[in-house]
């Protein structure tokens, strides 16, 4: 503010001035000329004014409703459990993320529209001309700017518009509650609850559903209808050449001819496994992980395709270097050293599936992974 203009009043004179006098003094000291300063609603209590107030309140109320809807969607128990695509309720489950985005987005949008409408309808649009200069603000300048702000608040009539204040508070409060619910939601899911079945966080589709159940390694031929009619293609020990890799999926005899079950085995995200047959010279240099020394079958090793970083598919295998690569963030894993990470952001080895060959020569899983696959979470031991 400018230090030029009329001589500033004394502290005693300043204390006795009312707001209008301070407004005038502040304008004079700042060299401000008010060209136009109309009241948004010169006649108070008109139908148009009340209609505008209700419209603004409506947008704030909608913001509150959508903010609360976001919290309800996030906390609704139906979302907490994964639904397989073959499950009739999968369609509703698949709407979880869109419902979160739409409800939160509409809460923010409605709150913003309400603020803009209130500004246009009730905040005075003054036209002034001011000569600006640099320098620190004096005490008198600070007092006059407070008067200007107070006057702007009164002229906007916010003090007497309780409907707008209540709905704006509700909208902002609901939106704040929605934002606060985001970190709280991470405490809702209990990874230990019902975790003994294949749908828990600790297990995959390779877990036997009853003692002694045989789970074969199955190819994805890309022709599901033919697999339903003629049967799936299982992997034998002699099918892969030395240095080759193939993605395999679990198959149970109980799934024979079952279109939904066969499709679900291919689409379940934690099912894909990289089956690698090492070259004999490379197999002789393998370093096995403690407690998993017998997880391989000869030159065959099976690792999950779910990267331990953020869950991307580690779909690349470099035969010459025996490295498993994740294309998302360039993590690399050494297939000769229990698939431990040697480059990139991943910090844990890929989980290894214990495998063997049955009496008919088919490669089968000896059981599920002994650790949770994919990205880490708080309850993991590693």
From TrEMBL:
<dbReference type="InterPro" id="IPR017941">
    <property type="entry name" value="Rieske_2Fe-2S"/>
</dbReference>
<comment type="similarity">
    <text>Belongs to the Rieske iron-sulfur protein family.</text>
</comment>
<keyword id="KW-0249">Electron transport</keyword>
<dbReference type="GO" id="GO:0004497">
    <property type="term" value="F:monooxygenase activity"/>
</dbReference>
<protein>
    <recommendedName>
        <fullName>Cytochrome bc1 complex Rieske iron-sulfur subunit</fullName>
    </recommendedName>
</protein>
<keyword id="KW-0813">Transport</keyword>
<keyword id="KW-0560">Oxidoreductase</keyword>
<feature type="transmembrane region" description="Helical">
    <location>
        <begin position="56"/>
        <end position="76"/>
    </location>
</feature>
<keyword id="KW-0812">Transmembrane</keyword>
<dbReference type="GO" id="GO:0046872">
    <property type="term" value="F:metal ion binding"/>
</dbReference>
<feature type="transmembrane region" description="Helical">
    <location>
        <begin position="168"/>
        <end position="188"/>
    </location>
</feature>
<comment type="function">
    <text>Iron-sulfur subunit of the cytochrome bc1 complex, an essential component of the respiratory electron transport chain required for ATP synthesis. The bc1 complex catalyzes the oxidation of menaquinol and the reduction of cytochrome c in the respiratory chain. The bc1 complex operates through a Q-cycle mechanism that couples electron transfer to generation of the proton gradient that drives ATP synthesis.</text>
</comment>
<keyword id="KW-0408">Iron</keyword>
<feature type="domain" description="Rieske">
    <location>
        <begin position="270"/>
        <end position="364"/>
    </location>
</feature>
<keyword id="KW-1003">Cell membrane</keyword>
<keyword id="KW-0411">Iron-sulfur</keyword>
<keyword id="KW-0001">2Fe-2S</keyword>
<keyword id="KW-1133">Transmembrane helix</keyword>
<keyword id="KW-0472">Membrane</keyword>
<dbReference type="GO" id="GO:0051537">
    <property type="term" value="F:2 iron, 2 sulfur cluster binding"/>
</dbReference>
<dbReference type="Pfam" id="PF00355">
    <property type="entry name" value="Rieske"/>
</dbReference>
<dbReference type="InterPro" id="IPR036922">
    <property type="entry name" value="Rieske_2Fe-2S_sf"/>
</dbReference>
<dbReference type="GO" id="GO:0016705">
    <property type="term" value="F:oxidoreductase activity, acting on paired donors, with incorporation or reduction of molecular oxygen"/>
</dbReference>
<keyword id="KW-0679">Respiratory chain</keyword>
<dbReference type="GO" id="GO:0005886">
    <property type="term" value="C:plasma membrane"/>
</dbReference>
<feature type="transmembrane region" description="Helical">
    <location>
        <begin position="96"/>
        <end position="118"/>
    </location>
</feature>
<dbReference type="Pfam" id="PF19297">
    <property type="entry name" value="QcrA_N"/>
</dbReference>
<dbReference type="InterPro" id="IPR014349">
    <property type="entry name" value="Rieske_Fe-S_prot"/>
</dbReference>
<keyword id="KW-0479">Metal-binding</keyword>
<keyword id="KW-1015">Disulfide bond</keyword>
<dbReference type="InterPro" id="IPR045603">
    <property type="entry name" value="QcrA_N"/>
</dbReference>
């Amino acid at each position: 503010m400018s230090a030029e203009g009329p001589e500033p009043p004394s502290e005693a004179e300043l204390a006795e001035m009312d707001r209008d006098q301070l407004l005038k003094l502040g304008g004079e000291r700042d060299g401000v000329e008010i060209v136009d300063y109309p009241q948004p609603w010169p006649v108070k209590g008109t139908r148009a004014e009340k209609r505008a107030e209700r419209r603004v309140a409506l947008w704030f109320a909608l913001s509150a409703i959508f903010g609360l809807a976001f919290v309800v969607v996030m906390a609704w128990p139906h979302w907490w459990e994964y639904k397989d695509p073959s499950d009739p309720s999968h369609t509703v489950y698949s709407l979880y993320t869109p419902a979160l985005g739409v409800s939160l987005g509409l809460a923010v949008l409605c709150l913003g529209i309400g603020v803009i409408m209130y500004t246009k309808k009730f905040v005075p649009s003054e036209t002034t001309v001011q000569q600006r200069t640099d320098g620190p603000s004096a005490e008198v300048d600070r007092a006059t700017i407070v008067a200007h702000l107070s006057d702007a608040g009164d002229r906007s009539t916010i003090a007497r518009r309780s409907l707008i204040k209540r709905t704006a508070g509700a909208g902002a409060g609901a939106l704040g509650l929605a934002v606060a619910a985001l970190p709280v939601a991470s405490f809702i899911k209990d990874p230990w609850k019902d975790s003994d079945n294949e749908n828990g966080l600790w297990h995959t589709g390779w877990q036997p559903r009853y003692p002694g159940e045989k789970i074969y390694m199955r190819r994805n031929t890309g022709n599901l209808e033919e697999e339903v009619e003629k049967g799936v293609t299982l992997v034998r020990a002699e099918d892969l050449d030395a240095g080759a890799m193939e993605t395999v999926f679990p198959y149970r005899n109980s799934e024979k001819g079952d279109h939904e079950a066969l499709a679900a085995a291919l689409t379940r995200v934690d099912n894909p496994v990289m089956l690698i047959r090492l070259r004999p010279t490379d197999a002789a240099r393998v370093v096995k992980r403690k407690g998993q020394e017998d997880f391989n079958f000869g030159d065959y090793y099976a690792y999950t395709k779910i990267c331990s970083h953020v869950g991307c598919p580690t779909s690349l295998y470099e035969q010459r270097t025996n490295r498993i690569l994740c294309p998302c963030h360039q993590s690399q894993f050494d297939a000769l050293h229990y698939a431990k990470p040697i480059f990139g952001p991943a910090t844990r080895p890929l989980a290894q599936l214990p495998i063997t060959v049955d009496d008919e020569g088919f490669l089968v899983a000896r059981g599920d992974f002994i650790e949770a696959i994919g990205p880490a979470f708080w309850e993991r031991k590693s």
